[in-house]
Amino acid sequence: MKIYVISGLGADFKVLERLQFPKEHEVVFIDWLIPENEESFNSYVERMAEKIDTSEPFYLLGYSFGGIMVQEINLIKAAEKVVILGSIKSDKEKSRLIKMGEMTKIPKYIPVNFFNLKNFEKYSVFRNFFDPKNPKVNQYFRVTDPYYLKWSVQRISEWKFEQKNNIIQIMGDRDIVFPLKNSKPDYIIKGGTHLFPATKHKEVSLLLNKIFI
């Protein structure tokens, strides 16, 4: 079967490139699209789902914001299994920081030019948020269109979702973006920061080969 994979916010597939999937399956990466002006979340999800062939059974896997995206896609194109890495199964699992953004609507009012690449590289807090000991953090984030980044941050803060039964959740126990204490994942990666698919790829690969059978 095909495994359709979506990476994290602003990330291409470098952060997932060391993962080893079962050899009998075909891995298909879905690139992030740049949102159209004032595009609704539902419209965007439908466009992201266009590459998925429903004429045969398939799996979905998403990392971080990609985990949110594959769950939304699953509502309109149902997968055999949905696996999320470093992501949440419902809005009830949001971190305190994300909930604050939802309540205050701050992401909506942050100017687009705040999200330019120079600003992201300038603020060391950005690196510390994902993995303070990993010097390659900036290398993983290559989708740097400012409007896409602002739009995505706003969508995450506003996201409302009821947990579904067929979601398999894998989280790191040192993840600051989506803290473990807010969730009850199926699998926990010990010592895993938000970048655990890259830094703990062997452990994650073993799990994926167990899940995608």
Task: Give the distance, in angstroms, between the N- and C-terminal Cα atoms.
Answer: 10 Å
Rg to the nearest angstrom? 16 Å
Strand content range: 5-15%
**Helix content percent band:** 25-40%
Number of helices: 10
| General form | globular
Which structural class do the helices and strands define?
Answer: alpha/beta
What is the arithmetic mean of pLDDT? 88
Give the tally of β-strands.
Answer: 6
Question: Which consecutive residue ranges, at least 5 long each, have pLDDT under 50?
Answer: 122-128
N to C succession of SSEs: EEHEHEHHHHHHEEHH
Main beta sheet strand tally, sense and closure:
6 strands, parallel
Adjacency order of strands in the biggest sheet: 2-1-3-4-5-6
Organism: Chryseobacterium formosus
GO molecular function, one term: hydrolase activity
InterPro entries: AB_hydrolase_fold
Protein name: Alpha/beta hydrolase
Written description of the protein model:
- By secondary structure, the chain is an alpha/beta fold.
- 37% of the residues lie in helices and 14% in strands.
- Strands 2-1-3-4-5-6 form a six-stranded parallel β-sheet, with helices on both faces.
- Helix 2 links the parallel strand 3 and strand 4.
- Helix 1 crosses helix 2 (65-76) and helix 3 crosses helix 8.
- The longest helix is centred in the C-terminal third of the chain and has 13 residues, at 146-158.
- It is globular, with a radius of gyration of 16 Å.
Would you spell out the secondary-structure blueprint of this structure?
Layout: E1 2-6, E2 26-29, H1 41-48, E3 58-63, H2 65-76, E4 81-85, H3 96-104, H4 106-109, H5 117-122, H6 124-130, H7 137-140, H8 146-158, E5 167-172, E6 187-189, H9 196-199, H10 201-211
Parallel strand pairs: 1-2, 1-3, 3-4, 4-5, 5-6
Helix pairs in contact: 1-2, 3-8
